[in-house]
Amino acid sequence: MVSEYTVEVDYDECEANAVCMGIAPEVFEVDDEDNLWIRQEHPGPELIDRVREAVDSCPKRALFLKKGDA
Fold first, then answer.
1. CA pair distance 52, 23, nearest whole angstrom
2. CA-CA distance, 22 to 18, in Å (whole number)?
3. How distant, in Å, are the alpha carbons of 8, 42, 55, 62 from that of 70?
4. Is 49 strand, coil or helix?
5. Which of 14, 22, 44, 69 is the most buried (most CB within 10 A)?
6. What predicted TM-score, i.e. pTM, was given to this entire model?
7. Helix (H, G, I), strand (E, B), or coil: what is residue 8?
8. What tens digit of pLDDT does each residue of 20-51 get?
9. Residues 66, 55 contacting (CB under 8 angstroms)
10. Neighbours of 14 (CB within 10 A)
11. Which structural domain range is residue 62 located in?
12. CATH of residue 22
């Protein structure tokens, strides 16, 4: 089953400070070169609350959780 939610990043705003990775490491990863990677573009329902928390906690407001794009 594909999630009804899509995680998106504004890479022009993202500073790869890893706040999101600390909250939802199954979905967000910051590598050794300080690049943010989305590990699960369409997270399942069991992760949505933590993804929302990560989006809301982003200091640069560079993360978005959109519904209906899957």
1. 10
2. 6
3. 12, 7, 18, 20
4. helix
5. 14
6. 0.90
7. strand
8. 999 999 999 999 999 999 999 999 999 999 99
9. no
10. 18
11. 5-67
12. 3.30.70.20
Asked whether 25 and 37 are in contact (CB, 8 A), the reply is: no
Q: Are 9 and 62 in contact (CB under 8 A)?
A: yes
* Number of domain units in the chain: 1
SS3 63: strand
Partnered with residue 8 across adjacent β-strands are 64
Phi then psi for residue 57, to 5 deg, are -90, -10
pLDDT at 18 over 50: yes
User: Is residue 54 within 8 Å of residue 38, measured between CB atoms?
Assistant: no
Cα-based torsion angle of the residue sequence 15, 21, 26, 31 in order, rounded to the nearest 10 degrees:
60
Structure token pair of residue 44: 């399942």
